[in-house]
Amino acid sequence: MLKLIPILLPVLYGLLLYHFSVWRTHRELDAQSTRLADPTLKALTDRMAASLDIADIPVHIYEIEPVNGLAAPDGRIFITRGFYNEYRQGRVSAEELSSVIAHELGHVALGHSRKRMIDFAGQNAMRTVLAMMISRLLPGIGVYIANILTRLVAAGLSRGDEYEADAYATALLIKSGIGADPQKSLFGKLDALTKNRAGVMPAWLMSHPKTAERIAAIEKNEAKWVR
Question: Global pTM?
Answer without folding.
Answer: 0.71
